[in-house]
Write a structure and sequence with these properties.
single chain; about 80 residues; mainly alpha; about 0% strand
Length: about 80
Amino acid sequence: MEQSVIFEKLTKVFQKVFNDDTIILRNDLSANDIANWDSLTHMVMISEVENIFSIKFKLKELSKLEDVGSLIGLVTSKLNK
């Protein structure tokens, strides 16, 4: 799957989970940039990402996520396996 498609799908997930249609993803976007991004919404977002891409993350992988760019990299690597 192309990164542009992943980016597009992730944008929809973020807009849905954070209830904000104005969210525009950037590689450096992180929890510090979205007001209501807390631990609960983080887990909801991760669950949505797993469902939409039919993948599962390991806790160790999730602990390494720093921003949207690292999430895209992780999703890409999962899809290419």
